[in-house]
Amino acid sequence: MPEIKKYLSIVAVGASRDKLARDLVDAVVQRGCEISECRITPLGDQFSAALLLSGNWSAMGKMESALPGLAEQLGLAIQSRHSRPAAPETAYRPYAAEVVAPQQTRLLGELLDFFAEQETRVVEISAQAYESGLTGAPMCTLHIALQVPLNHHPQTLRDAFMDMCDDLHADGLLDPVKT
């Protein structure tokens, strides 16, 4: 009889310190779980991790029961939920948008509104604010992973995106993801 895999999503946040990512990964592996997806990144001076774990019933039970003690031991706030992998989206093609612009409060909201109006799905967002090395002006860079319906004409979407970027005084690229 084939073994049934179970999935657990974990989000952890806490004060950053050396080897924290390694300690978290070790704790997962010690309990017999595999890491199916992982995003670990600093947020200011904080450590943040989002993990999708997989394993059999026994491994998931060990992991879930260990979470409160693990949170205390590692100095993390940990939230978990039973989960499953995302279903393949065959009616969509993967695209990536990149925007570089002067820092402005409304930028991300405007981009999200635009993509919602275009009936595209936002899958992942990465944003960084910084000061320009040449001028000192406050700037930001946004990377957005998208799913675009197969019936959308790519050039029409790209033209509308570029018009919106012009309105926001931003430089933008919208290209298919080549896997």
Short overview:
This protein has helices spanning 20-30, 57-74, 107-117, 154-167; strands at 6-15, 34-43, 46-55, 76-83, 92-102, 121-131, 138-149, 171-176.
How does this model look, in words?
Its main location: cytoplasm. InterPro entries: ACT-like_dom_sf, GcvR, UPF0237/GcvR_regulator. It comes from Salinisphaera orenii YIM 95161. It is built from four helices and eight strands, in the order E-H-E-E-H-E-E-H-E-E-H-E. The protein is an alpha+beta fold. The protein has two domains: 77 residues, 2-Layer Sandwich (Alpha-Beta Plaits), CATH 3.30.70.260; 85 residues, Alpha-Beta Plaits, CATH 3.30.70.260. It has a four-stranded antiparallel beta sheet with strand order 2-3-1-4, covered by helices on one side. The chain has a four-stranded antiparallel beta sheet with strand order 6-7-5-8, with helices on one face. Strand 2 and strand 3 form a beta hairpin. It starts with 5 loop residues before the first strand and ends with a strand.
User: Which percent range describes the beta-strand content?
Assistant: 35-45%
Reading the helices and strands in chain order gives EHEEHEEHEEHE
Mean model confidence by pLDDT: 95
Largest sheet: 4 strands, antiparallel
- Count of discrete structural domains: 2
Q: Which CATH C-level class of the largest domain is it?
A: Alpha Beta
How many β strands by DSSP? 8
Strand order of the largest sheet: 2-3-1-4
CA(first)-CA(last) distance: 34 Å
Task: State the CATH architecture of the largest domain.
Answer: 2-Layer Sandwich
Percent helix range:
25-40%
